[in-house]
Amino acid sequence: ASLRPPRPGAGLGLPARPPPLQPAPRAALPLLGPAASGAPGLPPLGDMEFAELIKTPRVDNVVLHRPFYPAVEGTLCLTGHHLILSSRQDNTEELWLLHSNIDAIDKRFVGPLGTIIIKCKDFRIIQLDIPGMEECLNIASSIEALSTLDSITLMYPFFYRPMFAVTEDGWHSFLPEQEFELHSAATSEWRLSYVNKEFAVCPSYPPIVVVPSSVDDEALRKVAAFRHGGRFPVLSYYHKKNGMVIMRSGQPLTGTNGRRCKEDEKLINATLRAGKRGYIVDTRALNVAQQARAKGGGFEQEAHYPQWRRIHKSIERYHVLQESLIRLVEACNDQTHNMDRWLGKLEASNWLTHVKEILTTACLAAQCVDREGASILIHGTEGTDSTLQVTSLAQIILEPRSRTIRGFEALVEREWLQAGHPFQQRCAQSAYCSSRQKWEAPVFLLFLDCVWQILRQFPCSFEFNENFLILLFEHAYASQFGTFLGNNESERCKLKLQQKTMSLWSWVNRPSELSRLTNPLFEANNLVIWPSVAPQSLQLWEGIFLRWNRSSRYLDEAYEEMVNIMEYNKELQAKVNVLRRQLAELETEDGPQASP
Amino acid sequence: MTQPGAGRLTPALAGSVSSAGLLFGTLSGGLVADVSSGWSTSVEQVKLLDRFSTSNKSLTGTLYLTATHLLFIDSHQKETWILHHHIASVEKLALTTSGCPLVIQCKNFRIVHFIVPRERDCHDIYNSLLQLSKQAKYEDLYAFSYNPKQNDSERLQGWQLIDLAEEYKRMGVPNSNWHLSDANREYKVRKLSKPIIVGSSKFRSKGRFPVLSYYHQEKEIQSRHIWIICFLFFKNQAAICRCSQPLSGFSARCLEDEHLLQAISKANPVNHYMYVVDTRPKHRMQSWWATQKDIGRIIVRISSKIWNDEKIRESDEKKRLNAMANRAAGKGYENEDNYSNIRFQFVGIENIHVMRSSLQKLLEVSGTKGLSVNDFYSGLENSGWLRHIKAVMDAAIFLARVLIEKDWISFGHKFSERCGHLDGDAKEVSPVFTQFLECVWHLTEQFPQAFEFNEAFLLQIHEHIHSCQFGNFLGNCQKEREELKLKEKTYSLWPFLLDEQKKYLNPLYSSKSQKFAVLEPNTVSFNFKFWRNMYHQFDRTLHPRQSLFNIIMNMNEQNKQLEEDIKDLESKMKQYKKKQADGVLTKELLHSVHPESSTLKDSLCFKEQTLLPVNDALRTIEGSNPADNRYSEYAEEFSKSEPAVVSLEYGVARMTC
C-alpha cells in the first residue's frame, strides 16, 4: 500500500491552514493594522500600500465550499496578502489563503448571489458564495489585483514577521564555502573561484563557484564568453568514491561556423584522468542541438573534444511542460471520467513520460560516474532547467547526504537557487492560469516528482517524507519566506532578501517542523540507489495531484499507525537498555560481595 | 515456502544439481513415460533470457524436468522452480544462432524465456511440458500426488479447519487469521441490507438461464460467503449450488424456492425493496430484457412473494412487467406506485470471454521490452482491464455495502474450468478470481488498516488457485468435489497458510476500530492502479527495493521480542533484588541475560524484501541479481540514442548492506 504521511489539516476542520503557508493567525495579525509595523530598518508595513486595491475589505455571511468538508459560513476579510474566512461560531474554522497562492479565479452570478471559484497554485479549488453582486465583484477584482502584484518587493515575504524563535538563520545555513569543504575536501583538483563576484561574468551564477584548480579566472572569463549566458562549466558534484565529477554549464556558442574555444576545451579536459574519457550529456535531442547552431548555440564537436563522448537525451522544457501539467491537473480534477477517459487523459498529459525521461537521464549520468568511472558534463541550452534536474537527481542517486533533510536543503540551495534556476519566472503561474507565458514551467515540480518516485522505491533511504517535498512545492509557488523569490543570486542580492525576508530554512529546521517532515523509517545507507524507470514502476504522485480530490483519511491514519509502531520500538529499546544497565550496576555493586 | 509442499521438497535438493536429479528418479513412471525417448533428465548450457532486456542479457545454467516442476539452476546456483500446473502456454520460437528459444508463460504471470542449445532438446522439453502442463484427469493433478507428510487425522483437521474457524467466528473468538472475529459487527450490517436478486445473463450452453441468487438474513456465514462471491463472479455463477441448490436454472426452478423467499420476507418485514441487479453492460442488457419477458415476470412474482403481495392480479403483474421492461430499456417508470418495491441497478460487467482477452492484452502490454509510458497507458486503456475492475467494484459497492472484502474462503466458483486446471474448453477459462483478488487489493490500498491480511496473502492464494497442489480449488462445484474425494485424497491449503500466518498479517491492521465496519471505497477512476506486484510479481527489477510493509512487519516482531526481553529483565531484576536481600547472589543470573538481543541488531536497511515472504529457491527471480535489470534499462536507452557509445551495461550494483 502506498502510505503517505498525513498532511496537517487535511483531515480536520479546515484544511486551509497548513503551517508552512499560512502563519498562525496571531502571527499574521500585525498585518491587519499599522500598529504592528515591524522592526526598525524594515520597510513600513501596512495595508496602506494595498488599500486602493482592496475595494471591499470585509463581507459577512460568505459561504465556503470545499470538497469533502461541509460548507462553512463566515466573514470574509481581505488583507494585503491574505484572504481570510473565519466562521463566527467556531474560532478554529478559519481559512487563510495567500493571495500569491491564487492562480486563477472564476466568478458567476445567480440572482443576487455571487460565486467566486478560487483556483490555487497548489491545485486546490475552493468556492466562495458571496451575498450581493457588488461585494462579489469587488472581492473578485481585489483578489485578482492582489494575486498578480508585479513588484516583488510588495510580496508577502517582505512583510512577514516570524512569530517563531529563529535559532538558525537559514540564509547562512548553506554557505558555498562550507559546501565546498564538505564535497571537495578530498581533493585539491578543485578550487573556489570568486571570478563572478560582481555577477559580471555570469549574471545567473552565484558569486562563488567551484572550478578546476588548474584553470585561472582569466580563462574562466574567456570560457564564459563561449558558453550560453556566460555559464561556464562548474562543478556540480564530486564523487568521493572514485574522484569523478558531474559538471554543468550552458551550451557552447559554436554557431554555424563551428567556433571553438581552447580555454573551454582545456577546462573540461582538466577534469579527466590520463587516458580516460568523459561523457557530455546534452539534454536536447540531436536535431534540436543542431538547430541551436543557427541561433549561435550548438554542441561540442567531436573533433574539438576528442576525449568526450556526447549523448543526447531529450528532456522537454517550457510550455510543453506547462501544458502537460495543465492537462494532468485537469484530468485529476474531473471525478466523472470513466476509466478509459481517465487513462487516456493521464497518458495524453505526458507527465509521467517527462518523469521517466528525466529520471532515465539522471540514472544514466549517475551510471557514468559510478559504474563507468567517467566524469560528465551536462548541459542543455541555458543550463538552468533540465540540466539542473539531471545534476540534482544524479546526486540523490549517488550521494547519501542528499537524501537527508539538511542534505536535500543544501542540494536545493546549491543546484537550484544558486545555480540560477529562474524560480520567479517558472513558478509565476501554475496549472489554472489562462495567460500562458513561455517562461512558465513546472521544472522544479517535475524534479520533486522524480524524487518522490525514488522515495517510493526506497522508502527507508530518505530522512524526509513526502510532506517535505510537498512543502517545497508549495513554497516555490507561494510563500511567506524569501527563499524562492527572484530568478538568481544576483537578483536576490539586489532585493536584499537576506536582510528583508526570512529564509524558509530558518523555519523548517526547527524541531517542531522537522518532526512532521521526518521519515520514521529512515536508516542511513551509503549506497548508490538505482531506481526502476519502467512505466510499471512509476506512479502518479497522488499526494500532490489527488490531494484535494479525495479524502486521505485512511492513508493518513495508517501512516500514523506506522509512526506509532516505530516510536513504540524506540521506547522499548530504551527501556531494555535502562534495565540492562541497572542490572549491570547491581552486579558491579554486589560483585565483591558475591565473588568470595 | 510459498508453495508449502514444494517448499518441503526443496531442502533436500537445495543448490545441488545431483539431488535435483534424484527427484527425477522418484517420478512415478506413468507421468513422463511418453517423454523418455531421447530426452535426458537435464539439459545443460541453457540460457535464461532477461525478459526486459533488449540486449539479450542472459544467465546460463542447467534445466531439469521433474514430475511436478521445471527447474532451472543457473551458474550462481540460484534455482527457478516452475510448477507444471502453472504453465499456461509453451511456445517454441524460430531457431536462432545461439539455439532454440522456448517461451513459457505461467498462470501466475511468470514468463521465462529459455534458449536451448540443441533444437532436439528444445523439442523434447516442449513436448514434455505440453503433456505435463495439461492433465486430462483430475487424478493426474499435483494435489493427488502431493504428500506433505501429514497423517490422515492432520489431513482431516486441515479440511475441517475452515468449518472450525466458522465456529470460532460465531463464538466470536478472535483467533483466526481470516477476519472471523467480527461476526457481530457483520450481522449488524447485514440487518440493514435488503434482499437482492441478481439477474444475470450467463448464456452458457443452450438455453441456460441467468442465475438468481439471494441475499438473505439467515444467520449462516456460509450463505453470506456464497452470496458475496457470487455477485463478484456474477454470471459465471451457474452453480451457486452450495447454499441454494435449486438455482441452476432460472425459469424452471426458481418457483421451488419461493418458500425460501417467503421465509426471507417473514424475517424481514421492514424490507420494502427488491433490487434487480443486472451485471451486464447496458448495450447487451437492453436487448436482452426485451426478449426475456418471462424472466421479468418471475422477478415480479418473486417480488410479490417477498412482500406477501399474494393477491397480485394478472393485470398488475402485466403492468409491473411492462414498467420493468421500460425501466430496463432506460425509459423510466410511468407510475412509481405499482412497482415501487423493485429497484434496478445496472452495472456494466463484461462476460468471461471479454475478461479473458482483456487480461491477455494487459499482459502483452506489460511484457513489452523497452515500454514507453505512453504505450503502457494506452495499452492499459485498450486492454480495458481496469475498466472491468472498476465495474466489478462498483457493482460490489452497490450490492454489498457489507464487508465483502473479508470473505474469501468458501465459494462456489467453478475453479477447474475457469483456471484451466484440466485440458478442456479454452473458452471457459477466465480470470474472474484474479479479478476478485485485484478488487480486494484495491480495497487494501484504500483502507490500509481494514484488512488483517496483506498483499502476500492475496498473491499466495492466487498462486495456489493454479498450482493444483492442494485440493481446495479443484473441481467445479461442491458435488464434483465430493465425487473426487478431495478430502481423502488431497490436502487443504488453509492449514499451510495458517501455519505461516505471520507472513500474511497486515502489520497495520486495526482490529479494534469500528470505523471499518462498512467500507465505502472510492471508485473514481483515478483510484485504480495497475497491480504491479501481481502482474510483475516475478519481475523483481520493477519492484520497490525496500518494502514498507516488510519493515513494519519486522518492527512489530521486534517489538514483541523486546516486550519479552523487558519482562525477562524485569523478572531477573526482581529475582536479583530478592536474592540480594537474601544475601545470595549467583553470577549465572546475569550471564543468562543475553546482552544484545539479536533482534536489535537487525538492520532495516535493504532487507532483501520479497513480495511473497519467501527466501527459498521456489521464488527465485529470473536473473541472478535484482539490480542488473535497472542498469540495462538505462543502458539500453543510452545505446539507442547513441549507438556509437560503448554499452554501459556493467556488473551489478550490490544492494545489500
TrEMBL record, chain A:
UniProt topology in membrane: Peripheral membrane protein
GO biological process, one term: phosphatidylinositol dephosphorylation
Domain Myotubularin phosphatase as annotated: residue spans: 170-545
InterPro entries, A to Z: Myotubularin, Myotubularin-like_Pase_dom, PH-GRAM_MTMR6-9, PH-like_dom_sf, Prot-tyrosine_phosphatase-like
Chain spans, region Disordered: 1-29
GO molecular function, one term: protein phosphatase binding
Residue ranges the record marks as coiled coil: 555-589
Keywords, in A-Z order: Acetylation, Cell membrane, Cell projection, Coiled coil, Cytoplasm, Endoplasmic reticulum, Membrane
Protein name as catalogued: Myotubularin-related protein 9
From TrEMBL, chain B:
Keywords: Coiled coil, Hydrolase
Keyword flag Signal: no
Organism: Galemys pyrenaicus
Pfam families for the chain: Myotub-related, PH-GRAM_MTMR6-like
Domain Myotubularin phosphatase residue range list: 158-535
MF (Gene Ontology): phosphatidylinositol-3,5-bisphosphate phosphatase activity; phosphatidylinositol-3-phosphate phosphatase activity
GO cellular component: cytoplasm; nuclear envelope
Residues bound to substrate: N351, I352
Lineage: superkingdom: Eukaryota
Similarity comment text for this entry: Belongs to the protein-tyrosine phosphatase family. Non-receptor class myotubularin subfamily.
Presence of keyword Acyltransferase: no
Chain coiled-coil ranges: 545-579
Name the record gives this protein: Myotubularin-related protein 6
